[in-house]
């Protein structure tokens, strides 16, 4: 499957001749067959990423394809439990769960043509596809998008025998990696600067979105974009806002996905509502799942963007805000410190009080806030854009081939 | 305008980060890690960090100094390590030796601090450099200037910073060509004196273009 998209030339106004350099790196790889395999065609960051990376690789003359591992409800229940356990959570599955995983892997093997020069398997769900590696075949790479630093041993010990058979593994942060016999590489997740969530918006559109939600565009606006989840600490954000409000007039927006199908999300939204206590300057927005322009408008309008997560994967909402040159105050959790270099591309905090203090500091020093935003934009331009991601893949393919 | 017999060939450069199976959680472990780390790892945390965070001219330019300050709150050692200038080195062995000596001196003077646990570990990584001809060449200063203006940060870094180690000389690709192929010795010297610590890669490039413009006017 393949998603359509913007051409490489569309990135030239943003990246200049770096696009020429991408073409130069791709030249020796022209005609190389690449297969990307993940477990979902739509929804989630990996599908979004592959929907852009694969067309860009094709435009660079690689014969890139994207296949989706076929799983049933029972398979995805097993892998959801694996996912939580690999993040360090408890695991209560038994041998039957492992058997379901094995049987779906066997079922998928004949479905996929695996004799490609580069095969990139994304995340644990299709990891056992390495069983189908033809003899004398190309290079097999496991791209792990999750934090494996403290996995539940029951699940990790089940998956590890497949992982160690790969030629290379890719992680999103050195702290997410494990001790493995194969070389491990660092690929940051990325955002697409031309996607609706990140492209430059007309000021009139931004104003319309704010007015639709009753937000005053002329007053200071603090924004956190994330689902209503305790690990994103929305109640902590409200408490930090209240401290800031003693010193600065401001409004707060907490915007996240709808909580209809998530009982815990609904409870957290209710707790946040209670914490907001009817304050008319606190706006809790339940956005439909696919609202990229709305999110973009809120980030664009923000005076300061907050990401006060207690735990985080990579936290790409931070990169989205930095790309918009916004000063960011965020927790030092997960992949956030890779994006927010403290005092250089934003400010890190470790508590409600610290978050409030850093927000106050930036509101009192708008020139510093502007400089952090500008440096943050540059940091994202170099490290966290989709084109950087493609460049890393090309470089890895060349390296695995033994080219200079 | 002088034309060089040997053209300058620009490259497309890319730097992959390889995560090593090695970490340090204290100064003592950092000292041990400095002994065991590969040359590519010393390069990554010193030379390459300068390219990665080139726009942050106020921060420490190497990862060791940054970690010692941020994760261990040891500003004196951070300043010592951050004070090392990669232009003073023609080999990674020398640079590794000085990093280790400074860390050892500090641990000897503050033995109780060697085992203190850091807020977060130091993850040793290393650089994998991939460089291919970009297809751009220059034989005159004007052609050189034109290409320079359009070079990406990674490729500018490759020629101007990383080349020092490749050449095993206290110079860079640009200065070597300006002097060796164009006979512009004075310009080559001035280019080599551009401070890569107090400049961003963009401002270093602008300074270089200014020097070239003055040289063209002089000719």
Describe the structure.
The complex is a heterodimer of chains A (404) and B (219). Chain A has 404 residues and is an alpha/beta fold. Chain A folds into 2 domains: 8-190 and 385-401, Glycogen Phosphorylase B (Rossmann fold); 203-383, Glycogen Phosphorylase B (Rossmann fold). Chain A is built from 15 helices and 12 strands. In chain A, α2 packs parallel to α15, α4 (73-86) crosses α5 and α7 crosses α10 (292-301). Chain A is globular, with a radius of gyration of 22 Å. The mean pLDDT of chain A is 92. Chain B is an alpha+beta fold and 219 residues long. Chain B folds into 2 domains: 8-13 and 132-218, no CATH class; 15-126, no CATH class. Chain B has 10 helices and 2 strands. In chain B, strands 1-2 form a two-stranded antiparallel sheet. Chain B is elongated and about 65 Å long. The mean pLDDT of chain B is 91. The A-B interface holds A 16-18, 20-21, 24-25, 27-28, 171, 174-175, 177, 179-180, 183-186, 341-345, 375, 378-379, 382-383, 391-392, 394-396, 398-399, 403-404 and B 12-19, 21, 52-53, 55-56, 58-59, 70, 120-121, 123, 125, 128, 130-135, 150-155.
